């Protein structure tokens, strides 16, 4: 770490660590309000069916039931988190589109009564043919999920940069591979929960959210309220990973139930309902064609993808875009073609999950490149080095990359993993694989089109200077943004972390910020916080200049001590100066704001620009395969990350570990499985098999620091980036170990066993 | 109301009205934290005793007990709310000084266990002679409450302005009367309660407080913590009336119990413990001598008072000062002498109670003046008119009075009460009486000596301008300061009250304010809020000037609409401009601060200056006496108040009603009664007889508006002022009705009956 910083670059303890480990942290589901009712949503048992009638009369008669609502009681305005693709209703009006679609809701005095009442609602359905496969769904004559979208095409992207056909013609070797991803779910440990209190024409919602702002915006829009009349308060959040970015039926139905009953209404999804609500990873069908020269230099790439979007858009427009847009970040090539169809099916809607659209395409690309390398007889690591993106370059799809230490990441990964000693030299059944990745540091455009700045911050210093409070709309969902933003505030102010306080993620008491998604907060919220801190420091130094009778340019402040730069022994406590400021001028306040630079680019069918900065990573894993059973034993993983300047190493490595954990689960075990009626067969943590701590390999997380000019103190993203290379890196290691490549995720023991069996049969060994 | 204002001057609903009436408001005692312990304090059963030994071993053994502490476990630093008169310890070290003095404390898992454990603590006492009467306590040889204060003199004031002796020599009539006040207690409906959480070297206290700032300051001082490491959060407060201004044993012992156990500790006083903690009204012995000329013009006054302070200082230094200082406000005379002895006794400590020191002296003075008037044959109302203070005058003790409509108040009271038709003309047993009063609008100096500004405020506007949040340290204890400060913020910003939000009285999230005492917030906190609002408006108008292409001087903003002053049809919504400001410049924030003007004066033994402004009031009451029983039936009360500009008439009249209620209780019924061992005989709401709604007479509350130049929009105080004249006005009415004057408070039925009996005996009628 750079010793020129006194607060950032250090693993200070988390702001909320103590209250969390002592059980004092209150999550939305822990909150109690007098007279609070419990609400639940009645969902559809059919994947596709016309609603013929809904009879709520028996439910209404049940003692303890305070309200029963259907589509007739709520606004019919369609909503959604993708701009201009609003396709969801609070309750289904004409038909249901997946098992779990929202039909009605009940508020009652306790959970028992609510569940009884749900059973008393009589819904008459006419079951319709359903479609569960996106390839089938695109065919003529397939069941239509939404009448407005022929052939179930929710989104279509066709981008063409350079001349891919010409590149392929000129290539020494052109190869096409096909891969299929898996439908996975974030499964945060804290279920969705919302408490709505609608009174006096104003609505307060306590909820488990990644973005109080988007919740406020979309809830206000749905009910025709002014934003100022909707207050959204994030309590503690037990993980989001993309699934808590958009308001759910809990907030919409809860608001109406509260308005009707005049009482607070608590709503929640149980674990099975969480799976049905979903908004997890899209399953993608991926065909990748690459042309290379004799040395393995990539000349052109064509990515042709289909995404199973499920029944609604959710964040899928961005998912579809990111799937192709981020493929170009890691390697330097000129010609790129991207085709994408995001398709409606009668399954739960997919959305953003850590890495948002990018991990599966990256898995496909990295496996595909290992085949290319093998064909050319080039070491896969070497192939990546030959193509690795360099700093200050522009991608074929016109993303400006500033800092980029991908080459150094690959080299360091090679060194610490012992790649040279292992590749091709490991005993039978063991293998090593590499993959790289890159991710955005925030989105250049927010989710709904707006000219608003993306982040802002206010800092208020206590009247005697012994504490300072940061007000930020940035959203700590466990990743530690409260902590690093306080570190940044203290660094910018010349203050101490220990004396920072924070108020965050409450639309009423904190200034605007778009929240936690797209790995945006360290750079974007951090920029606003830095500016606010600097404004405080400027005022402190000006006051100190008067008090110390020194030129303001000769003064600086560090760790709450103002000092003369020319004679550092002349000092004055920050607190004394802050106090004098308060006495002379009133509250010592700093303000900051951040809007991303307008990013260039001439896209077809895509937003202009995408992010101010990109992280890079190389991952190497070593695996052992049990050839009898197909069991995959990951021995060790080496992750080397370029995420710019590091604010808190311990939190950073925590993010890498978490991302790897998630990527590993999706690589080997996780998959949401449906029966032939579209019903989830494993909507629980026993049968949806996430890795446990015991499943985790040894992880070596290392850094190649860089300085990202677009970020405060040179920071960029880490929270999602480490998820990106994992699937490809595992798949390549398995290929190296067993000589078989499974082209569908997850790379389950069974699939590996079957592939090994097939290989042996081919080789005549069985 | 003045139509030039759109938000102030209107009876908008209270900010917190809805949550209070629906039971959603959480008071400190309603809060629950995981693992929270219950703590209680063991108090002394003796009024005066030496502590020989304390044995906590049995209590410690009781299962469920987590900590038992005595003076050995806590800092021995003395504390107190009067500067430089710190005389109280967390726990008594050498001896106890009143029944209820703090000896030890226990924290345990539940209330049952705590109470059992308290009984298991063995304290060996050597009982000492005690003194309960302040006159006795001043005598040589009386028991000494504190060794450091010979003759138990806690405070002595001797002031001499002009030449009183000469005035008396020149007077046509000089008269002396003696009165004795009563010891009363505020008895707020919400008991004191505090939850302390000490972890990681920092302390958070949720508590029922009138001033988070003083709590923070004195708690930090006691434990040697930085203020920034102590967070004090006011929750909802169910009344204070002066008794919740200083931290109690609950906060001090609770903090230590939490530090030792590592768990949150909830402490509370039950109703009897509240009475024992007290800090209510001082009982005063009052001798007043006045010299007048033939026309009743007052030439000089000598006030010679003794206060029973109880065992500790509490706020008593200010009480002693106010008792004399405020006597000069209502009448214009030149020569004034004030002698005060505040005396320690072995009774619970007295402090500030609504009207702080002034009501009893005012009662004495107003009764005394009726005797003077009777002697001179002048109508008592006429006597007051002849002497009434005029605006822009200076009192003999050098208080500068700006606005003063006392004459108009008296005239209006005369008119609406029908004084002229009633005085001397009512049937036997009925009578009418008048008294006047005046009160400070905030103290020129805070309670501890400091150069800090007295109030500050921050306003943040929502990014789309549909809401604004006011951050203020001002403390709403039920009186409605949150409401009127939001009205003031909206008025200053040109915004709407309905869209104001507030964060108040939390030392971490709000800027500094001294809190709710001395009727200071409307003027002082209001000044800071007005300035913050004006800073917002200025920025809005500057931005509007650019957007509307109009000169900024031609623009104004009202009710969230910016308009051209020269052509009011040209308008633009506040929200649009606020949003543009956010886009262009970041968070729209206004800051304000208030420090009172340095007030002049050459006092002996008193602080310099006292308040920036003074309210005035005249009260007339009509009573009926049952001569057989002494029962006093108050038929109607007319209060006419000069409190400057009125921000919220409904809250204002609520304050008048509440103050009258309190004054009435103290006049006729309320008295804390002790046995001969210093034990309170009536520490409960059944036997400490406060008036109920059914006891209340018809109240006519009227205003004479004035414009106070020291206050924002011309405001001044009302919260305490209406308490001041009540006792005198009732006493005078009783005198008028029955021809007897009871010279000791309360003016109980029994005393009236005895006085009537004595009178009849004298007249030979019995």
TrEMBL record, chains A, B:
SMART domains: Ald_Xan_dh_C. InterPro entries: 4hydrxbenzoyl-CoA_Rdtase_asu, Ald_Oxase/Xan_DH_a/b, Ald_Oxase/Xan_DH_a/b_sf, Ald_Oxase/xanthine_DH-like, AldOxase/xan_DH_MoCoBD1, AldOxase/xan_DH_MoCoBD2, AldOxase/xan_DH_Mopterin-bd_sf. It holds the Pfam family Ald_Xan_dh_C. Signal peptide: none annotated. Residues 22-129 form the Aldehyde oxidase/xanthine dehydrogenase a/b hammerhead domain. Keywords: Molybdenum, Oxidoreductase. Its EC number is 1.1.7.1. It is an enzyme of class 1 (oxidoreductase). It comes from the Bacteria. One of its GO terms (molecular function) is 4-hydroxybenzoyl-CoA reductase activity. PANTHER family: ALDEHYDE OXIDASE 1-RELATED (PTHR11908:SF132), XANTHINE DEHYDROGENASE (PTHR11908). NCBIfam families: 4hydrxCoA_A. This is 4-hydroxybenzoyl-CoA reductase subunit alpha. The lineage of its organism: Bacteria, Bacillati, Bacillota, Clostridia, Eubacteriales.
């Amino acid at each position: 770490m750079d010793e020129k910083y006194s607060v950032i670059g250090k693993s200070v303890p988390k702001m909320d660590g103590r209250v969390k480990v002592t059980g004092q942290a209150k999550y939305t589901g822990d909150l109690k309000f007098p007279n609070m009712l419990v609400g639940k949503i009645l969902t559809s048992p059919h994947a596709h069916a016309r609603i013929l009638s809904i009879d709520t009369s028996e439910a209404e008669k049940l003692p303890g039931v305070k309200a029963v609502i259907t589509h007739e009681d709520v606004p019919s305005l369609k909503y959604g988190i993708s701009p201009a693709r609003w396709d969801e209703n609070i309750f289904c009006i004409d038909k249901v589109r997946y098992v779990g679609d929202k039909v009605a809701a009940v508020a009652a005095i306790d959970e028992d009564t609510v569940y009884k009442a749900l059973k008393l609602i009589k819904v008459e359905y006419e079951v319709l043919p359903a479609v569960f496969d996106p390839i089938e769904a695109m065919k003529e004559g397939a069941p239509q999920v939404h009448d407005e979208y022929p052939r179930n095409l929710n989104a279509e992207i066709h981008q063409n940069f350079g001349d891919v056909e010409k590149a392929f013609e000129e290539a020494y070797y052109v190869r096409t591979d096909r891969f299929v991803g898996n439908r996975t779910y974030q499964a945060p440990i804290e279920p969705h929960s919302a408490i709505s209190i609608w009174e006096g024409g104003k609505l307060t919602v306590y909820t488990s959210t990644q973005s109080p702002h988007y919740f406020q915006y979309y809830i206000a829009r749905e009910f025709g309220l002014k934003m100022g009349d909707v207050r959204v308060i994030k309590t503690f959040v037990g993980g989001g990973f993309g699934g808590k970015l958009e308001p759910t039926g809990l907030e919409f139905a809860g608001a109406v139930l509260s308005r009707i009953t005049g009482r607070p209404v608590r709503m929640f999804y149980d674990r099975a309902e969480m799976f049905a609500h979903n908004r997890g990873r899209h399953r993608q069908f991926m065909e990748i064609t690459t042309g290379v020269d004799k040395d393995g230099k990539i000349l052109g790439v064509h990515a042709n993808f289909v995404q199973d979007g499920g029944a609604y858009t959710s964040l899928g427009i961005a998912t579809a875009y990111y799937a192709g847009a981020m493929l170009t970040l890691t390697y330097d090539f000129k010609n790129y073609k991207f085709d994408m169809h995001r398709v409606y099916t009668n399954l739960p809607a997919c959305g953003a999950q850590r890495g948002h659209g990018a991990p599966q395409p990256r898995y496909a690309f990295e496996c595909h490149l290992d085949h290319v390398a093998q064909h050319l007889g080039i070491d896969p690591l070497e192939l990546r080095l030959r193509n690795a993106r360099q700093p200050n370059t522009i991608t074929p799809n016109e993303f400006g990359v500033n800092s980029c230490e991908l080459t150094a990441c690959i080299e360091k990964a090679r060194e610490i993993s012992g790649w040279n000693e292992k590749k091709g030299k490991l005993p039978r059944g063991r293998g090593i694989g590499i993959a790289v990745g890159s991710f955005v540091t925030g989105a250049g455009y927010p989710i709904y089109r707006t000219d608003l700045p993306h982040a802002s911050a206010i800092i208020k210093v206590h009247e005697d200077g012994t504490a300072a409070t940061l007000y930020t709309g940035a959203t700590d969902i466990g990743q530690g943004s409260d902590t690093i933003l306080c570190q940044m505030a203290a660094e910018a102010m010349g203050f101490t972390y220990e004396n920072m306080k924070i108020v965050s993620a409450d639309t009423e008491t904190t200034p605007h910020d778009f929240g936690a998604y797209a790995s945006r907060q360290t750079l974007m919220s951090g920029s606003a916080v830095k500016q606010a801190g600097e404004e405080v420091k400027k005022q402190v130094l000006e006051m100190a200049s008067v008090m110390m009778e020194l030129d303001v340019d000769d003064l600086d402040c560090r760790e709450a001590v103002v000092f003369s730069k020319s004679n550092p022994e002349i000092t004055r406590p920050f607190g004394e100066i802050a106090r004098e400021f308060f006495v002379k001028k009133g509250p010592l306040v700093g303000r900051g704001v951040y809007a991303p630079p307008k990013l260039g680019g001439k896209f077809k069918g895509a937003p202009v620009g995408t992010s101010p900065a990109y992280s890079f990573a190389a991952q190497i894993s070593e695996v052992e395969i049990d050839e009898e059973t197909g069991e995959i034993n990951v021995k060790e993983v080496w992750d080397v990350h370029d995420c710019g300047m590091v604010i808190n190493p311990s939190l950073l490595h925590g993010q890498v570990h978490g991302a790897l954990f998630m990527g590993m689960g999706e690589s080997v075990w996780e998959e949401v499985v449906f029966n032939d009626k579209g019903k989830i067969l494993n909507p629980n943590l026993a049968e949806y098999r996430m890795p446990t701590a015991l499943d985790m390999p040894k992880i070596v997380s290392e850094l190649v620091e860089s300085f990202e000019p677009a970020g405060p103190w040179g920071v960029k993203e880490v929270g999602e980036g480490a998820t990106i290379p994992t699937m490809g890196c595992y798949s390549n290691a398995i290929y190296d170990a067993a000589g078989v490549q499974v082209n569908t995720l997850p790379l389950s023991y069974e699939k590996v066993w079957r592939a090994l069996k097939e290989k042996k049969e081919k080789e005549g060994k069985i």
